[in-house]
Write a structure and sequence with these properties.
Helix content is about 35%, strand content about 20%. It is α/β, with parallel strands linked by helices.
Amino acid sequence: MTSSASASFAPRVQFGARGEPVSTVLHGAGQDARSFSEYSGLFAAEGLRPCLYMAYAGLRGLDAERLGRLRAQLDEHADPACALQLGLSMTRDGKPEEHYEHEVAKGHHDASLDRLAEFLASLDRDVYLRVGYECNGPWNGYGPQTYRAAFRRVADRVRPAVPRLATVWCVEGGFVEKAMEYYPGDEAADWWSVDLFGVDHFAKAALFLDAALEHRKPVMIGECTPRRVGVEGGAASWEAWYAPFFGLIRRHPAIKAFCYINWEWSKHPQWADWGNARVQDDSFIFEHYRDALRSPLFEHLS
């Protein structure tokens, strides 16, 4: 059997975007401080620790106290050389009626944006800001026109104040056929991103990845986890989700980053049927996952 580390891959295309690696794929993880630290520790001995720390923030009511908690998490769990991948929400997860991107577009949350910009600039880290992540997901409630306007407002307000920031346009993999309705334009979006969960997402992502090449945008897999597959099937789980996942990354030259969610989802009532995605909980999955990360394609914390 050919090892994942020695498997061939398509050379990466260089687009010259903010925060874009030249020839590698950034390795990231989340989606909370504890799971990030645990996941990072699994790969520390071999120098395979993630170089992207994934976190989230809601724009409404974003005050110094909330930003202070995020800074404390970064200081405690993320090496100073680790970049921040931040999902910025303009709604409430699972409550689409509470979306407020239309308010953002009109400037009603400019004070929060200015506070966020000042905070991000002070971190002295590369920052990837997923503005209104999974914008095409119906659970968010975003309207295409108001979302596009809100994204541009965020980019115009925050990007000039944060030299090491890249704006990221993020869609959900199950609804990519509707993605371009939400596209804020090449000037506003530095990166594209797609979140991949179900096995069916890999085939759907191909058109999105081809479009990214046409627009000359690097792609981040902003969130990924083996939804309803998990790790407990061992080799069967690997063949069902992990093998096609890493195969997708190897094949598509626009992919420049991924962030894995190493959670036991069954412990969270909202996602109880998603299963266990903790790679350390199955020896077959862990060994093959670690072997895949050994590929020179991936960039880790140096």
